[in-house]
Specification:
The chain has 199 residues and is mainly beta. It is 7% helix and 44% strand. It contains one helix and 13 strands. The strands form three sheets. A six-stranded antiparallel β-sheet has the order 3-2-8-9-10-11, with no helix packed on it. Mean pLDDT is 80; it is low at 1-25 and 80-91.
Length: 199
Amino acid sequence: MKKALLSCVLTAALFTACSQDNTEDDRLVCVDITPICFYIEVSDPAGNDLLDESRPDNLLDAITVSYDETDYTVQERLYYYGDDGLESRSTRTYIPTFIGLWSQLSWNYATNTAGNYQVVFGEFAGEESVAHREITLHIGSHEATLAYSNSCKWTAGDFPDIDRHFYLNGQELTDRPANLGLYAFTYTPTDGLQLQTAH
C-alpha cells in the first residue's frame, strides 16, 4: 500500500512540474517551434496543377532536389487528408525529422478545403540558427536555388525571438506566401520556373 501511494505521489509530481504554481522567473515553459520546410507548388500557365499524380503530364518523376551532395527524388505522399483536414498527430510535442523530398496535398484551414499538391523538402529544426542553407530544385533541364536563413534567440520571456528569411536564386523573398517558405511556380519546358507574384 505504501509503495502504491508513493507511486501516485511521484506521478502527480511529474505532471505538475510545469504548473502555474511556479513563479514567473523559474517556471518551465514548453514551446514547440515550427520546423522549416521548402513547400513547392508547380502549375502550367493555365493554372493546371502539375504535381497532381492523376494528370498524365504531371512532373513528379521529373523533379529532384540536390542538398548536401545528395540527390533526392519524390517519395510517396506521407500525409492523408479527408473531410476533416490533415490527420491529427499522435503526440503533443512535435520533433522535426529530416525526411527528404515528399509529395502531399495542401490544406486550407481557413476554408477547410484541399488546395494544390506540393512537393516538400525538409524537415529542418526551427530552433536551429542557420546563416544560410540552400537546396537546388531540378525540373527537367531547369533548376532553381532555394534557401533560407534562421535566427532563434531565447529572450527573458516565454517565447523565442525568431528571424527567418527565404530566398530564390540569391534574392530575398518579401511577399507572402513565398516569405513563409511556399514557392508557387509556373512552369513550361521552354521558359522553366517562374515564381508567381500572387497566389
